[in-house]
Amino acid sequence: MGVEPQILENEEARLLKKFVDDLAYPSHCRFCQGLDLSNPNPIHHPSYELTPACNHDCIFCYSNVAVKLGKAPKPGYYGWDNPNAITVSQYGEPLISPRIIEVNRILRKRFPEARLDLQTNGSLLTEELWEKLDFDLVMISLDAASREKHLEITNADTFDNVVNALRIVGRDKSVRSIVRTIFMPGINDEDIPKIAELAASLGVDEMMLQPLTIHKLNGERLREAGLDFERAESVRELLKVAMEAKKYIDVRISGCLLVQLKRMDALTLYNVYKVSREVSPLVKRKKLDEIEKSNT
């Protein structure tokens, strides 16, 4: 006689299952092909890449891996006509580029119906610059709750600048403001609820908590920083931290992961691990050069 799955479930498994069932998809992930499990080869929604350069040197960053391997995308628009959403940008720090305001205006004019997302580390965002930008959603990366830990992770003494950027966007209720945080157990798992509390106090709308992807060239840096590799791949550990952060802010986890977790029963969810090791990130979208020509 078989054992009923419900008998094997524990209280923590049931709590995790309810938490996952109740979670909303991240605002940034709306329109992403990764939410459609019937799509055999989903790709991220379009992006405009301004530069692979960055003033941070984060221990986990896929962008610096792509640069080292010569696989970082050239500046330009990667996507298709009539997009629902465009991200500026997925590689490098867009606010380094002197063209950020110009490109923002080009995209708004060329794709007036598209949601425009800004993905930034926030360290260069000022009130003056913010007044010249026009985005619908802003994701600011913050992976530590203190200046010292931020310096260890980013190799940049910019914690106060990032906090100020969260304050700037948190005050602006015309945009969806998001703090984007990477789960690195052994390094920042205890910081994540504190980041959530800090962001909420600054008026930020949402936390997008993402599992870590370990790229080959960053593995040793993460090990030296104290990463617990096994816990980094445990979905249960990710969800437990998300539940703690949820006490302070509207926390959400990556949509392409969440859509799969919602299909799992409590026992599977409790024990599942996410394979999170890759060699280098790749852009699957085509580069289109016509968008700037059409706006000159």
UniProtKB/TrEMBL annotation:
Q: Which UniProt keywords apply?
A: 4Fe-4S, Iron, Iron-sulfur, Metal-binding, S-adenosyl-L-methionine
InterPro entries found in the cross-reference section: Aldolase_TIM, Elp3/MiaA/NifB-like_rSAM, rSAM, rSAM_sf
Q: Which Pfam families match?
A: Radical_SAM
- Which residues belong to any copy of the Radical SAM core domain? 8-250
What GO terms are given for molecular function?
A: 4 iron, 4 sulfur cluster binding; catalytic activity; metal ion binding
The organism's superkingdom is given as Archaea
Which cofactors?
[4Fe-4S] cluster
Q: What is this protein called?
A: Radical SAM family protein
What organism does this protein naturally occur in? Thermococcus piezophilus
